[in-house]
Amino acid sequence: MSNENQNLSGWRRFIKKMTKANELGKEEDIMTDHDYDGIKELDNVLPPWWLYGFYITILISIYYIIMIFVSPENYNQELEYTNSVEQAKKDVAAWVEQDKKDHPEKYTEAVAYTDAANLAKGKELYTSKTCFACHLDDLGGSIGPNMTDDKWISGGGFKNIFNTITKGGRPGKGMVAWENSITKEERQQLASYIVSMQGTTPANPKAPEGDITWSGK
Ligand code: HEC
User: Fold this and answer.
1) Nearest residue CA, atom 15 of ligand 1?
2) Distance 18 CA to ligand 1 centre (A)
3) Pocket of ligand 1 from Cβ distances under 6 Å
4) Domains in the chain: how many in total?
């Protein structure tokens, strides 16, 4: 009990010290002779808590000036930038290391299929994964390009086609990256199926798009 009282009075003493508030009833002592239509002004001292905060900002500004302008080899924006880029590169490398351990299948070369079972699976996925909606059932093209002709926007051949399915087409063109929604095995089957359709004749072929020529299988 007595301890609590002591704490309280200690706290009160601290507050008093930090505010240096003038005692109520003694306003005349610090009354200035300013008088604005009867509104008078007290000459209160700056509260110490505020003043200490102000001193701290001054100290911080001195530290800042020294760090930024006086010893630029120790710290500056460019260095901070390069340091954080370095750090980010390390973080990415560490992430990739871990990812390689967790998902080794992502880092092995994609395999092209030519066997009937996998091509049939590719054809099935072409429908179930909605590819036909933009490229049409016979790959003749509507929103997306014709994929039976020898002109390619992002490159023909299994590797390029697999890559486009994985990473998507040019930004904003409507061909999204399917990496996260279609498994690698399925993307391999899809790309293999598209390769196998090279040179077929769709009902309404869309005009060729793209500057890369590839017609081989
Ligand atoms: C929303 C419409 C849309 C859907 C759905 C779609 N695509 Fe595409 N696709 C496009 C467009 C548009 C392009 C052209 C991208 C560009 O211009 O870079 C494209 C390009 C491609 C290309 C590259 C063609 C080239 O000339 O290089 C391949 C391969 C492809 N799509 C395969 C697929 C597969 C497989 C699926 C299903 C998993 C699919 N697309 C689903 C719209 C679509």
Assistant:
1) 169
2) 70
3) 129-131, 133-135, 143-145, 147, 152-154, 161, 164-165, 169-170, 173-175, 178, 190, 194, 210
4) 2
Expressed as residue numbers, the domain containing 25 is: 10-70
Q: Confirm if 108 and 98 have CB atoms less than 8 A apart.
A: no
**Total-model pTM:** 0.65
Taking only the tens place, the pLDDT of each residue in 42-54 is: 888 889 999 999 9
Say how far apart CA 150 and CA 213 lie, in whole Å.
5
The mean of the pLDDT values for the chain is 90
d(CA 121, CA 201): 21
- Interhelix angle 116-128/184-196, nearest 10 degrees: 100
C-alpha 162 – ligand 1 centre gap (Å): 11
The encoded tokens of residue 79 equal: 């260095």
Whether 66 and 124 share a structural domain: no
- Cβ burial of 195 (10 Å; 0-12, 13-18, 19+) is buried
Query: Do 55 and 122 belong to one domain?
Result: no
Q: How far apart are the C-alpha atoms of 196 and 113, rounded to whole Å?
A: 9
- CA distances in angstroms from 129 to 8, 132, 173, 195, listed in the order given: 72, 8, 18, 17
Longest dimension (CA), the chain: 103
